[in-house]
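Form 7-S
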Amino acid sequence: MTPRLTRRVLLQAAACLPLASAIRPSSAHAAPQRRELALTARAAEARLVGANNPATPVWAYDSTVPGPVIRARRGDTLRVSVRNELPEETTVHWHGIRLPNAMDGVPHLTQKPIAPGETFVYEFALPDSGTYWYHPHARSFEQVPRGLHGALIVEEDDPPKVDRDELWVIADWRLERDGRLVGDFGSAMDLSHAGRLGNTVTVNGREIEEWPLHGGERVRLRLVNACSARILALEFKDHRPALIALDGQAVEPREPPRDEAGRARVVLSPGERADVVLDAIGIPGQRSRVIDSFYRNDEYRLLDLVYAAKPLRELEFGPPPVLKPNDVPEPGLARAERHRIVFAGGMMGGAFQGVLDGETLDPRALLQRGKFWTVNGRVGADHRAAHAAAPFLTLKRGTSCVLEMANDTAWHHPIHLHGHMFRVVARDGKALRPADWRDTVLMNPRERLDIAFVADNPGDWMFHCHVLDHQQAGMMAHIRVA
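Output:
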């Protein structure tokens, strides 16, 4: 059961929601460029719940939560110098980017971790437009909820015509009354249940009450779930947002799926992103709630959409824009290799055993080692052990593959594959139309899910649950493409 959100603090309405500083390309259309920037991971303070409340000690990129918004164009090359001023080693993973394996940011598996006082330079091209994000892959169950995360936006060659292109990086925090983070990172309860769920939810680093709209405007809203465990289900009251992209990849514009109560909700598990077009159809002075209702008995208001006194224009909305798809290789399902992946463990998981460091252990023995989850019967120990161990799956480069995934647990798991995009082709044996491109996909308890992709990016790639406590507690492995 999740903790109830109780720390809703009224903030003064602003002209627009504050964002971390952005690093942007020039506005003019140009040939691909090399963009150089620097990030420093360090201890800082953040006013998560308003100026009249205590600041929260955090870890942050360039002392801001979230970190700087990096904007570039499809085809550009990023060169990012990352300095570590934390008390422990770290890395940066560029979530969703199809990049060279050496730039993927997984300690020991793809790079030597960045020690305190050291710097590492990441350099890679950006093959796909879309909404992405960056975060550590070293002790991520603690470093991400301490504040280390930021957005990476790769702009299209011909962006859709909207009045505003806005970003909501949504994170949750487990706070004491004095504003400090509760220090129980990696507790047995979080590792074995739903993960670390906070009691305070922020948008772009602040818990806010109001987000301004002008009647008649069209807004592209980029949503990033940067929580370490919380799943979001956002309902925009009085509005009909249209999905135009998921995990950075274009989709045919459509209404978000409806739940059993008939509510259209944008569901985002940790690591997932969605681009929606929000048409401002309200009247001056109108207030409309944005509700997060994923967890039963823990529905809360994220913020209010508040309409300005003067509309931007008359309400004249056409169909939502259609984004141009990225050039992702299409898997051939008829000739694809098929591999079965079973996720097991957790509380209420029944009798199971797991192989850890070559030894077969029962749940009690695994619990004593802080491990609760398995992938095909194997327990992911840590990144160093993953580097030393053989991959659980080896794929020939260029092969079309289908992973038939089974969630044999009582818990939700967002499954993330590094270095590739995959199509979600079936749920519980039923073909999905459309089969969306994703890099992270939410598996419901006891659900079966098939994903398909072309293994075209050589290297050792992480494959794990993005509830970061689940990853830490064993639900991680790596796939080798060679």
